[in-house]
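Subject line: Sequence and fold of a protein, written as structure tokens
Enclosed: The protein record, placed directly beneath this head.
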Amino acid sequence: MSKKSFISKIEEIILNFTKSDYMDSKEKVEERLSKSQSDDKPVKSFFKSFDSNGMQVFRFGDENAKNTIVYIHGGAYIGEINYQHFLYCLLLSRKLDAHVLAPVYPLAPKHTAKETFDLMTDFYKDLTSRKDNIVLMGDSAGGGFVLSFCQYIKTINLPQPDEIIVFSPWVDVGMSSTPYNNESDPILGEIGLREMGKSWAGDWGIKDYRVSPLFGDNKDLAKMLIFAGDNEIFYKDIISYVERLEEDDVDVKLVVAEGMFHIYPLFPSPEARAAFKIVKAEFED
């Protein structure tokens, strides 16, 4: 895409205006983390959900649909699933002949990555024993989790999904490739991300591949489709990760939207519609 649409320009202005102040302040992110909003109560929504070994999982579409999509939501590992995610999962279920499952995983700072890995491993093991045509999807932190999880399941002999599709994945929670262009991203900031990443990593540490897939083993991973905006803070880390995927002979396609911001495919815009057409084509092959 050579030019950003008028709608996306308006969206970016609104995002800049509503950007969380803790993204650019160590003091404020520490305050945010000290006041955890996660109380482990079920998320309330008119969308249906079920319990999977103590983990709430939202479901969209027909259980007998051709495809099964597991969607891991973003939120820097501290933000709960929200209606932006719900509506996108609903869209996926209606347009891709898919049963979409969206787990409500434990969040930092009250919880760490290890707890989510334990829950998701059990969930995925059960799912793969019953279903074919499984696609793992995620945005931002959720996209990073999907990549780490797919690296991990190789070590315990669980099958890869049929495909991995991620939007603006967070591949290095330590934000080690300084300097970053914080001014260009209307949603995220390096200072806040670094503190939230440490909280999520816990005892594993920020360079453990289970929290930062940039440092993991990519050999024999599933076919992959990655979306990124070249104006987002994660862009250069995503490029580095794709280069490593290519070195490891992973079948990967990177879609870069010029001038676009973080997780742009989840917003209502011409660029998002173009991204969805690419996603849909993957299910039609």
Notes: DSSP finds eight helices and eight strands in the chain. Strands lie at 49-52, 55-60, 67-72, 98-103, 134-139, 163-167, 224-229, 252-257. The mean pLDDT is 94.
